[in-house]
Design goal:
single chain; 343 residues; mainly alpha
Length: 343
């Protein structure tokens, strides 16, 4: 009699097919992003010979360092929901998962991160919930920080301050403990993994406070990355360096949140348009356009470079450990049903 626990025939070919489809989707998204950026630069008859390579390297390094903070926080949230992954594994999965944002929809980021973290013992459901919580927390902190910077440094920019506060409320509302618990209940996570749904109640104000203490550093570094791209293009502003950095931090946060809410792959087009409009008053049209496009390219190159470095460093997995999250979640649901049947 065949073993009921053995993989079914459809899963034998489905997993490789899904992985190839995922790889193709990411490659297509990356190609689309690069071509769009290059077309925008060509429209301005911009020449790469005017670049300062050292500043581009600095911009990429600052962006990479900025991702350490949300990557660490994501691992902490997973630990609140179940087994805590090692920091290195969590950061590796978090960083490589960025490549999924260039694919239409938000699911690819979840697939990549949950699949890569699976070997640490964390469930796909916990990793998925942590993606939502960390993403919204990071964006809310960014918008809140932008509002605070504008209030202190540029109090006359009322519409910008109100916009940043509104964005912070939109993306930050779901991270409030009582709202998040309600969302977990509505989405039916308890049917997929009752233990994770129960532990979601632990994501309270302590976790929220940890986000607001930790994640501002990510935005400070990413704003510094944008400022470095301005320096790479040889552009300057009559403003003091401190004010320039403040503008870059606030603009980066507001534009990133706007891009996320557009639901376009990587916020492509929306993020650039917002960043361009936010930088023009202080740096001029040419500097705003070139730095906006360059920052997109620099961040993409940094993601590709460090993902290529980090991916081979992952732990070896057994055959079942490399399953895609969609298959993992179905396994969790099937296991839960088996438990209910036996009881």
């Amino acid at each position: 009699m065949p073993d009921s626990r053995s993989p079914s025939a459809w899963r034998t070919w489905l997993k490789p097919a899904l992985k190839l489809a995922l790889l193709a989707a990411v490659a297509w998204g990356l190609h689309r992003t690069v071509m769009s950026a290059w077309e925008q630069l060509e429209a301005r008859h911009w020449s790469p010979s005017s670049l300062r390579p050292g500043w581009l390297v600095a911009a990429g390094a600052l962006y990479f360092l900025g991702q350490l903070f949300p990557g660490w926080f994501w691992g902490q949230v997973i630990g609140e929901l179940g087994p805590r992954p090692r920091r290195g594994e969590a950061f590796r999965a978090y960083y490589i998962g960025h490549l999924g944002k260039y694919v239409p929809g938000k699911a690819t980021v979840i697939l990549l991160r949950a699949g890569l973290i699976r070997g640490s013992g964390a469930s796909a459901t916990a990793a998925t919930l942590a993606v939502f919580y960390e993403t919204l927390s990071t964006l809310a902190v960014g918008a809140g920080l932008a509002a605070a910077i504008l209030i202190v440094r540029f109090p006359d920019r009322i519409w910008l301050i109100l916009s940043a506060m509104g964005l912070a409320a939109v993306v930050g509302g779901p991270t409030l403990p009582f709202v998040f618990r309600r969302l977990v209940k509505i989405t039916g996570v308890g049917r997929l993994n009752p233990s994770v749904a129960k532990e979601a109640g632990r994501l309270g104000y302590r976790t929220l406070g940890l986000a607001w203490l930790t994640l501002p550093w990510a935005w400070l570094l990413m704003g510094g990355s944008l400022w470095a791209t301005l320096a790479a293009g040889g552009y300057d502003s009559p403003l003091r360096i401190g004010d320039q950095l403040a503008i870059c931090i606030a603009a980066t946060a507001i534009a990133t949140v706007a891009g996320f809410l557009s639901f376009l792959p990587g916020g492509l087009g929306v993020r650039e348009a917002a960043l361009f409009e936010l930088l023009i008053p202080w740096f001029g049209a040419d500097a705003a356009l070139v730095s906006t496009v360059l920052s997109r390219v620099v961040w993409l190159v940094a993601e590709l470079l460090f993902s290529g470095i980090l991916y081979p460093l992952g732990p070896r997995r057994a055959a079942n450990g490399g399953a895609l999250p969609a298959v993992q979640v179905s396994d969790e649901l099937a296991n839960h049903r088996d438990t209910e049947t036996r009881s």
